[in-house]
């Protein structure tokens, strides 16, 4: 009876074909994937564990003592890496099938624990003092090695973000550096990340990692260009660069079936054009009308593109 109702709703257009398939599977009590949900739970579990561990150390380090804290962190870190090295597959430049979700998140746990331990060492003993940012470079280097050794995009993203932190800290050590120089460093970082990903792809080393490099590079470069438009620094040139990059991201996303880059191009391009136009609109009602109309158009365009991607894939 319920299946007949679902068929009728699909025919009349009340529900889409995708919704019909999902609901029919539930009615028949068929198996369905909880892959995304499990990944989310594991990720949140690891992050919550590290956050709780960090809070415990911060609140009770005087009572626990350095030896206990460092021993506990070393044990967790060492056990995580031992598990991965003892059970992980041999290195290959090609893509390697994952040994399971637990394996990936044990590796991620080990990386975060390592970073927490380095942070505690510097907090307690100031081993590098003013050169503490080298901890970020050390961590990023280790994360890159582990990401390639175990074919883990999650750890690769952690390595790239840690390296970005090192770039930012190094730059902040120059107190009179203008904002344009900071923006330029972000553009250089994004360019280097994109170039590194493209170079490794061309060399045949973990070619499937290219997407991760491009995601990070695109967001960094887009945000750097957008910050110039918000601050009104040489806005026309930055607007041309932003819209050109947005067009490239949209075209590339459509060409290679990567919807995320289409979203980057649309959203960042819209934000940049809006930032420029709002400098020219003096009326509050005019600005409000622009936001209402333009945002509805952008959302509609993204929804239409999402449906197209869903049909094609």
Q: How would you describe this structure to a colleague?
A:
The structure is a single chain. By secondary structure, this protein is mostly helical. The chain folds into two domains: 33-173, no CATH class; 177-313, no CATH class. It has twelve helices and no strands. It has helices at residues 2-12, 17-27, 35-64, 66-87, 101-125, 134-150, 153-172, 179-203, 210-231, 235-255, 259-278, 284-312. The radius of gyration is 24 Å and the shape is globular. The model has no long low-confidence stretch (mean pLDDT 84).
List the helices and strands and how they pair.
Blueprint: H1 2-12, H2 17-27, H3 35-64, H4 66-87, H5 101-125, H6 134-150, H7 153-172, H8 179-203, H9 210-231, H10 235-255, H11 259-278, H12 284-312
Helix pairs in contact: 1-2, 3-4, 3-5, 4-5, 5-6, 6-7, 7-8, 8-9, 9-10, 9-11, 10-11, 11-12
Instruction: Describe the main β-sheet briefly.
Output: none
User: Element order, helices and strands?
Assistant: HHHHHHHHHHHH
| Mean pLDDT reading | 84
Helical region count?
Answer: 12
Beta strand count: 0
Distance between the termini: 31 Å
Apparent shape: globular
Low-confidence stretches: none
Query: Please, how many domains?
Result: 2
Helix amount: over 70%
Give the radius of gyration: 24 Å
- Structural class, please? mainly alpha
Strand content: under 5%
């Amino acid at each position: 009876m319920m299946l007949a109702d679902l068929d009728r709703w699909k025919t009349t257009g009340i529900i889409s074909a995708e919704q019909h398939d999902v609901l029919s599977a539930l009615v028949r009590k068929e198996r369905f994937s909880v892959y995304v949900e499990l990944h989310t739970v594991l990720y949140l579990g690891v992050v919550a564990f590290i956050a709780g561990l960090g809070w415990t150390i911060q609140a009770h380090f005087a009572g626990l003592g350095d030896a206990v804290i460092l021993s506990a962190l070393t044990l967790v870190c060492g056990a995580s890496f031992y598990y991965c090295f003892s059970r992980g597959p041999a290195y290959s430049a090609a893509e390697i099938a994952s040994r399971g979700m637990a394996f990936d998140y044990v590796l991620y746990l080990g990386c975060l624990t390592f970073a927490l331990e380095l942070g505690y060492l510097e907090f307690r003993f100031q081993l590098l003092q003013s050169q503490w940012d080298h901890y970020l470079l050390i961590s990023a280097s280790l994360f890159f090695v582990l990401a390639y050794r175990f074919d883990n995009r999650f750890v690769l993203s952690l390595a790239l973000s840690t390296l970005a932190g090192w770039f930012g800290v190094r730059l902040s050590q120059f107190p009179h550096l203008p904002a344009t120089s900071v923006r330029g460093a972000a553009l250089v970082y994004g360019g280097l990340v994109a170039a590194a990903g493209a170079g490794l792809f061309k060399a045949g080393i973990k070619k499937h990692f290219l997407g991760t490099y491009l995601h990070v590079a695109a967001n960094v470069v887009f945000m750097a260009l957008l910050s110039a438009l918000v601050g009104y620094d040489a806005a026309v040139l930055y607007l041309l660069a932003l819209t050109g990059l947005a067009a490239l991201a949209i075209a590339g996303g459509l060409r290679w079936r990567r919807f995320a880059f289409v979203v980057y191009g649309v959203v960042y391009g819209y934000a940049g054009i809006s930032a420029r136009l709002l400098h020219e609109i003096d009326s509050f009602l005019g600005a409000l009308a622009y936001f209402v109309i333009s945002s509805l158009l952008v959302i509609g365009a993204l929804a239409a593109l999402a449906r197209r991607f869903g049909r094609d894939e």
